[in-house]
Amino acid sequence: MAKHLLLVDDDALMRRSLAFNLERSSFFVRTAATAEDAIEIVHQDRPDLILLDIGLPGMDGLEALRKLRDELGIPVILLTARRRELDEVLGLEMGADDYVTKPFDFDVLLAHVKAVLRRTQTVETISETSRSTAAGDLAIDPSAHTAVLAGRTLDLSPREYDLLYALVRNASKLVTTDDLLAQVWGAEFDGQPQVVYVHIRWLREKIENNPTQPQRILTVRGRGYKYIPQGV
Q: pLDDT tens, 169-185?
């Protein structure tokens, strides 16, 4: 079955051109000109991947990503013409999966689309075949895609969940930054450790009593991170 993409861009020519080329590449594509229209479409017909322009009229792409991150659980590639470094940090913290900077070659975009869909499918397959994991007062159930800390269900983005699961599966052991990139983000993020740094900070804000003095997710300087079970 063809993967379903939702393309959100206020440039009509861009929408038509990208949709045409993506459909020629065997995807089913729906389009929207605004974030508000995209939200309505998503609630009616869930896509496998969203291509989301940042510079939208009304609600912009970053605001839409923030609004929908928790309820969507859908991979998002941001399309941006702004300064890449700023958008990358903001977008990563809100749960985006990848970035393509305008102007871009269609083959480059297509490679990113295929890579994110491939990584997402791999994560889903692992989750479906994995058992529940507990470390102290934290329990993770991959089949239900839930993480419960001291009786409280954590409100995590899909990427935060995958990162926490990768750490908890190796509780009390070092997991290198490179290993986290490979397991959680995929090969297309090789050499981009900043994505791990950002998500570790975001995750600590949700599970640590004092994120500036973490007790659960410890940094092993220059190497990676350890999850230290608590409440045992």
A: 888 999 999 888 877 87
